[in-house]
Design brief:
By secondary structure, this protein is of the alpha+beta class. Helix content is about 40%, strand content about 15%.
Length: about 130
């Protein structure tokens, strides 16, 4: 099965998501200069904790509100997962996963547990 044989795709997809979040906060800061007040540095960090067996991707991008989390990660119809799985069944290449807006879900190819911690300037922090 192509979906499970290209596990390294998760890293590209999650870094791409972080990069998009940085682009969004940079764009927002053009008209709302306070958007970057809490964190001036735009960065993506990759952190490995061998003892805890965790891999963390942290960025200083725009973050998600509670509604963003529900709409983008919690709803299969809106996330593009269904369309992606249909495309895979029809023979599409797994590397197209980001085009369906479901790159985040590729993390489940390599992880038993995925935790999202996010903070938008428009909302409180969610985990």
């Amino acid at each position: 099965n192509t979906f499970y044989s290209n596990k390294e795709i998760f890293l590209r997809e999650l870094i791409s998501n972080s990069s998009d979040a940085l682009d969004k906060i940079r764009y927002q800061s053009l008209t709302a200069t306070e958007a970057m007040d809490s964190e001036k540095a735009m960065k993506i960090e990759l952190l490995v904790d061998k003892e805890a067996k965790t891999f963390t991707i942290r960025d200083t991008g725009i973050g998600m509100t509670k509604n963003d989390l529900i709409n983008n990660l919690g709803t299969i119809a809106k996330s593009g997962t269904k369309a992606f799985m249909e495309a895979i069944s029809a023979g599409a290449d797994i590397s197209m996963i980001g085009q369906f807006g479901v790159g985040f879900y590729s993390s489940y190819l390599v992880a038993e547990k995925v935790t999202v911690i996010t903070k938008s300037n428009e909302d409180e922090q969610y985990r």
